[in-house]
Amino acid sequence: MNPLQETHLAIGPARFRIALAWKQPLELLKRLYADYPDPDDGFADFTVRLEPDKPWRRFIRPSVHISGDFWLPDAAPLPLEQGLLAAEMGMNLQMALGWRRHLLLHASTVEKDGRALIMTGLSGSGKSTLSAMLGERGWRFMGDEFALLCPDTGQIYAFPRLVSLKNSAIAAMQKELPDDRFGPLLKATPKGDIRHLKPAAEAIANMHEPARPALLLFPRFGYEPAIRKMGQSEIFVRLTQASTNYVALGEAGFRALTEFVDQVPARAIDYQSGAEAEEIINRLWDELAS
Amino acid sequence: MSQQYKLRTGETLIEHVLDSMTAVFQASSGITHLVTDPVPAILEVLSDQFVDSDQVAERLQRQFDLQADADVAAVVAARLEELWQLGLVERRTAP
Amino acid sequence: MSNAWPLVRALRDPASVRGLDGAGWTNLVSMARAESLIGSLAHRLKEEDVPARVRPVLDDAIAAHQLARQQALWEADCTRRALAGYSGKVVLMKGTAYVAVDLDAGIGRSIGDLDIMVAREDLKQVEHMLLDAGWEWVKPDPYDDQYYREHMHELPPLIHRDRDRMIDVHHTTLPLTARPTPDARAMLDAAVQLETGQYVMAPADMVLHAVAHLVADGDLAGGLRNLWDIDQLIREFAKGDEAFWVSVEERAKAHGLAPHLARALRLAARLYGTPVSQSVAGVGQFSDWIHERRLLARDGWGRETRKLTRLIFYIRSHWLRMPPLMLARHLFVKWRKGQGAA
């Protein structure tokens, strides 16, 4: 069996050992995660493995099979050029299936003055793009994939791995930011075109700082601008669906989520452009976030 | 021959009101049930001893000052059977 | 990081983890997760002084398996309600049985599907009652379905439409085609009733069922966990019951599992230091060593190693389960389906 090469990443409270069969994605990971704290003691919460799905796939049309401590039986392999995406999916998988220290909400988060804005919705809602955009406009980026809700304190912890920009969001962010903030363009992945963006230096430096949840939004892209109030039952149900480990946390998850729903004001918002969304978000933030 | 119902022995139910509904966390299954009225009131009645659906209906009618009505009894009987199927309550044939 | 020995050693002797560095711990955790032994390991290390970075990983494993235990008991209770009108014995098997009786083997054990055994002649009735109560067939493939019904020791798996949990309904412990044919009737007759009205196997049968799983039923995949079950069951049953070794030996002969039991005992003693009866375990064989290598085939990244040994065991495992002609037919149909899908 081929030995694997490994690198260790610390993202928010979680530590990963990424073990790969190839050198190229490893170098890329190291470069893009160079500003993150370096866990040099060998401890990891999870191992992610990126290996050829068949031995010859190491060399011939190399394709990456994603596995690790936690894995799914039917994960489709990705071409080697999309190794960075494979690493990201591998880390998401470990968190979604294995992390129990927080209630995980599939959501993006940004912070201002110690208060967190959480945005959740189906893929295509634009929550990731909005968090990347706000992260360059005076907010601290806390993550575009998972918001980590602490059952003991009710605070949100950051999981600020690389932002994964999709399709039209790529060009929009490229206009604003220098090239060295980006990874390579990954064309035609299962999720469309993807380009990874390094979060702002402040987001990485302060990644261990939690924030108090102050506003929850359910954005929806591509509709006439609108703001809709939501009932608590609807919010609760949608958050249980947005959580990967609500059931796994049992009573602690129930208590954390019901308290969250009681305390955090929430709105559904529709928008058609980043500028529109920003305007709505700022208005709601001033009005509702306390 | 009537059926009697009671909360499962040793069961912990944690209730949380969410505007129109009540979320009920059941410790023994780890399942969160979302229920509407009159289920929370029914669960309350079932907390300490086996009772049949007529007794539950009667208690609810007194508690909420409802008219004695065959509908109430029918609604309660249907909800009780659902609660049993969900594993929220125990059921036995009246001795 | 050549094999899973550090995991076996940590389970056997918790103090052995004291010298581990960060990388050593990360390897240990990956191996334990891959072998579904992380919960058992976490419990074994409860009293050990472990590094601050490791403690939360172990605590998480304990909490996760607490949930697995609770869900397993809940699924058992769901079948109790679904089969309330069935007059025969419903025997809980494997992990669910261990936690239902609160055995040491259940501590931290991962439990996936619910396995139950009922009398063969009652399968139809039980199947209908489960379908009425919300379980549905998993496999729509008629070949698989026919295969299961004709040759396996269980109904095709059912999954509950609301709870997303699987149930396997067995009528014996090994496939009907397997060479040893444990006496299912005798297992049902000897089963012990729980307060809930459901049953678990008697101690000797419970051990032999675990043995059948380890040695006769599979390709030894996940074998370290099965062997840990055996170790824990034997330690608990043999302690304070001098008749245990006699009964398990007699019972093994009756089920045609005596050589399998002997092999499992030797492996358990070699790997986990299980205190076994020398006369029942018999003398070591060269092939024990191959089995041991196969059981330990796991590297520090959590990968299965020694592909060749694995393949030999896979073929061997099919031979054990099916007579050769049937095997050829099975592989042929599987192959044709593979072609069709490609």
From TrEMBL, chain A:
It comes from the Bacteria. Keywords: Kinase, Transferase. InterPro entries: HprK-rel_A (IPR027600), P-loop_NTPase (IPR027417). One of its GO terms (molecular function) is kinase activity. NCBIfam families: HprK_rel_A. This is Hpr(Ser) kinase/phosphatase. It comes from Parasphingorhabdus marina DSM 22363. The lineage of its organism: Bacteria, Pseudomonadati, Pseudomonadota, Alphaproteobacteria, Sphingomonadales.
From TrEMBL, chain B:
It comes from the Bacteria. InterPro entries: PqqD-rel_X. This is PqqD family protein, HPr-rel-A system.
UniProtKB/TrEMBL annotation, chain C:
Keywords: Transferase. It comes from the Bacteria. GO terms for molecular function: transferase activity. Gene3D superfamilies: 3.30.460.40. InterPro entries: NTP_transf_5 (IPR039498). It holds the Pfam family NTP_transf_5. This is Uncharacterized nucleotidyltransferase. It comes from Parasphingorhabdus marina DSM 22363. The keyword Transferase applies.
